[in-house]
UniProtKB/TrEMBL annotation:
Signal peptide: none annotated. This is Taurine-pyruvate aminotransferase. It comes from Salipiger marinus. It comes from the Bacteria. PROSITE patterns: AA_TRANSFER_CLASS_3.
Length: 461
């Protein structure tokens, strides 16, 4: 940390924060007797807090966002130059970085063609939901309007996104919810609902989606919204055969496939997008976090030309186009940052590094599983990894959330920041989460694993 702020300055910042800032996902009662953590500076994988203490950030900004790491001057310069030229104009008009980033992005997404800009993952998912509903009215008399979502998946924080989210504790106290959203079963083989394994389990979990469609009526279901790898619901990698069967079901019943890549998109799993591991062809792909690695607010709802064409006609009805606006989707900093972010990923082979380091880290987590009976399962794809902690390995009884939180706190005291599923799924908030920036090295991985090893030895006994 460069020490540019004096201790008096930092003391003022802390008091101002305590007096006026409402932190995300935080119970503020604790700040009556303690101070909030203020992150002052970041470089590479490291961040420094107000005490000057260094931390290795193994979760990319705590919410899986800073894919290319902190302190990227070239992204800052790209933003600065663009803002001086044109900082904003409403999205009803185009911009140079908006057009150029859309072109580059679509190059990475064969079969898709259109980019709708907005400024958060929740908002991107809302756009897709609205498109599905409008298509239902335009083509099906409003009947084919239901949107299916998966148990344990998460799609955002707005009321509509919570309506289509499969995490009961995140939804608690925020109802009543929007109608027309219907849950389908999860696909976590470690918590299997059927006495099957491997591809047989994957196909059965997908068949369960078809059962919901038939129960609801195929003529009422407009879309299926899934994460390629379930993120905050426990880092769930779909089993073999799952995605292929899902695609088949969607085509059979003319259901639009919406893949939420807000977490997995732009390199996190070792491909540009998580769905690309599985050979599926979505109708919608939504993304946010890693699009600009947190250097600017940007999100995208990407669609196929088939979807786009449903809103393009010469009819005299003035209601036929997609009547939506995202004010800050017109900010030019986002696509300018995203262009440079993409260049860095390409030029530094960060997709390759993600695959190599992800495989290495998964192996190291496997070593922890061999050493500590409290580690029931390790799983992941690329640099998005999880370790599910259990009180009893044979019964798979989950470790209590408080004990999992104690492991995370111990790791943090060692100077490494990791995450966990928390206040999401009743009784199953027991997975440690890892998503370091894509620039992570073997030495960094070893540092993370050592800290977790120490914590498991001390806490989860």
């Amino acid at each position: 940390m460069d020490g540019s702020l004096s201790q008096n300055d930092l003391s003022h910042v802390i008091e101002a924060d305590k007096a006026h800032v409402w932190h995300h996902l935080t119970q503020h009662k604790q700040f009556e007797t303690g101070d909030p953590r203020i992150i002052v500076e970041g470089k590479g994988l490291r961040v420094w807090d107000q005490t000057g203490r260094e931390h290795l950030d193994a979760v990319s900004g705590a919410v899986w966002t800073v894919n290319v790491g902190y302190g990227r001057k070239s992204i800052v310069d790209a933003i600065s130059e663009q803002l001086m030229k044109l900082n904003y104009f409403a999205g009803a008009a185009g911009s140079i970085p908006g057009a150029l980033y859309a072109e580059k992005l679509i190059e990475k997404m064969p079969g898709l063609s259109r980019v709708y800009y907005c400024n958060s993952g929740s908002e991107a998912n809302e756009k897709a939901f609205k498109m599905v509903r409008q298509i239902a009215h335009k083509r099906y008399g409003g009947k084919k309007h239901k949107i299916l979502y998966r148990e344990r998946d998460y799609h955002g924080t707005t009321i509509a996104c919570l309506s289509g989210g499969g995490q009961q504790e995140r939804n608690a106290q925020y109802g009543p919810f929007a109608p027309g959203f219907v849950e389908v079963p999860h696909c976590l083989e470690y918590r299997a609902q059927w006495d099957l394994s491997g591809e047989a389990y994957g196909q059965r979990a997908a068949d369960a989606i078809e059962e919901v469609i038939l129960r609801e009526g195929p003529d009422t279901v407009g879309a299926l919204c899934l994460e390629p790898v379930t993120a905050g619901g426990g880092v769930i990698v779909p089993p073999p055969g799952y995605w292929e069967r899902v695609q088949e079901i969607c085509r059979k019943y003319d259901i639009l496939l919406h893949i939420d890549e807000v977490v997995c998109g732009v390199g996190r799993t070792g491909t540009w997008f998580g769905y690309q591991h599985y050979g599926v062809e979505p109708d919608f792909v939504t993304m946010a976090k890693g699009v600009a690695s947190g250097y600017a607010a940007i999100a995208c709802c990407v669609t196929s030309e088939r979807v786009f064409d449903l809103f393009k006609d010469d009819a005299s009805d003035p209601m036929n186009y997609f009547r939506d606006i995202s004010t800050f989707g017109g900010c030019t900093a986002g696509p300018a940052a995203a262009l440079e972010n993409m260049r860095i990923i390409e030029d530094e082979d960060l997709l390759g590094n993600c695959t190599r380091m992800g495989d290495y880290m998964l192996g190291r987590l496997g070593e922890l599983k061999d050493k500590h009976a409290v580690v029931g399962d390790v799983r992941g794809k690329g640099l998005f990894l999880g370790a599910e902690l259990v009180a009893d390995r044979e019964s798979r009884a989950p470790l209590h959330e408080k004990q999992v939180a104690a492991v995370v706190a111990d790791v943090n005291r060692q100077g490494v920041i990791i995450g966990m599923t928390n206040r999401s799924i009743p009784g199953l908030n027991n997975t440690l989460c890892f998503a370091p920036p894509l620039i992570v090295t073997k030495d960094d991985v070893d540092e993370i694993i050592t800290a977790v090893d120490n914590a498991l030895s001390r806490v989860a006994v």
